[in-house]
Amino acid sequence: MPKIKTRKGAAKRFNLNAAGRVRRGKAYKSHLLTGKSRKRKRHLRQGGLVAPADSGRVRRQLVNG
């Protein structure tokens, strides 16, 4: 039986925290930043959590944790 491989694209974007929830980075922080307020850019720096409805799909792609 072959080993199950992790999806590397997902592994670079998501990771698990100590509670087992899936962490993610926020979008809209790469370019066109002059039109966004200082507060908005500051909040985009902090990560978020994947919604419970999607976390099962993401977790299946991160088979090796």
The shape is elongated
Major sheet: arrangement of strands? 1-2-3
How many discrete domains? 1
Instruction: List the helices and strands in order.
Output: HEEHEH
The major sheet is characterized as: 3 strands, antiparallel
**Unreliable spans:** none
Strand content: 5-15%
- Look up the CATH topology: Factor Xa Inhibitor
Extended strand count: 3
Number of helical elements: 3
Give the helix proportion (percent range): 25-40%
CATH structural class: Few Secondary Structures
Span from first to last CA? 20 Å
Structural class: alpha+beta
The radius of gyration computed from the alpha-carbon positions, rounded to a whole number of angstroms, is 15 Å
Please state the second-level CATH architecture. Irregular
Overall average residue pLDDT:
94
Textual characterization of the structure:
By secondary structure, this protein is α+β, with helices and mostly antiparallel strands. It has one domain: Factor Xa Inhibitor (Irregular), CATH 4.10.410. The protein is built from 3 helices and 3 strands; from the N terminus they run H-E-E-H-E-H. The protein has helices at about 10-15, 40-45, 50-60; strands spanning about 15, 20-25, 50. The chain has a 3-stranded antiparallel β-sheet with strand order 1-2-3. It is elongated. The chain starts with 7 loop residues before the first helix and ends with a helix. The mean pLDDT is about 95.
